[in-house]
Amino acid sequence: MCCGCGALGLAFTKELAAAGIRADLWAADIEPAAIACARENLEPLGGRVFEGDLFEAVPVELYGRVDVLLANTPYVPSEEIAWMPPEARDHEPRRALDGGVDGLDVLRRIAAVAGEWLAPGGHLLVEESEEQAPVAAEIMRAGGLAARIAEDEELGATVVIGTRA
């Protein structure tokens, strides 16, 4: 979800394949240019790419069956976009960056219904800033998911993981 060019889905699928795990990859985004790029990157692997707003783009046949939902949500607070490096702020569509007042608006929309789309034991994974992660975890809990924060200091990455019981 919010797949952009499909980089996360591509990396995740390749890592699973290297471990001998087959995955069906379904990707969605609202941005037409991202969809075109994601199709180039993911369709050769058998991935399916859909255009639309969040779960509206997801085929209903996946309802309650998603094991892992990677959501590359916009998480930059609206007022901080001006402070971003020009290569991002001047060349990315604003809606790919702008996460609303606190940067978590899109996550709120996803977390509110993700539990319905996830299979039992399924996970929602969302990269957030270290500062936003505790609030993002609370948003997932409010959506009925068990939430935890995982950090990789070497990569400087923080992921919030919500799990359906």
TrEMBL record:
Name the record gives this protein: Methyltransferase small domain-containing protein
Domain of life: Bacteria
Species for this entry: Nocardia terrae
Transmembrane segments: none
Family matches, as InterPro entries: N5-glutamine_MTase, SAM-dependent_MTases_sf
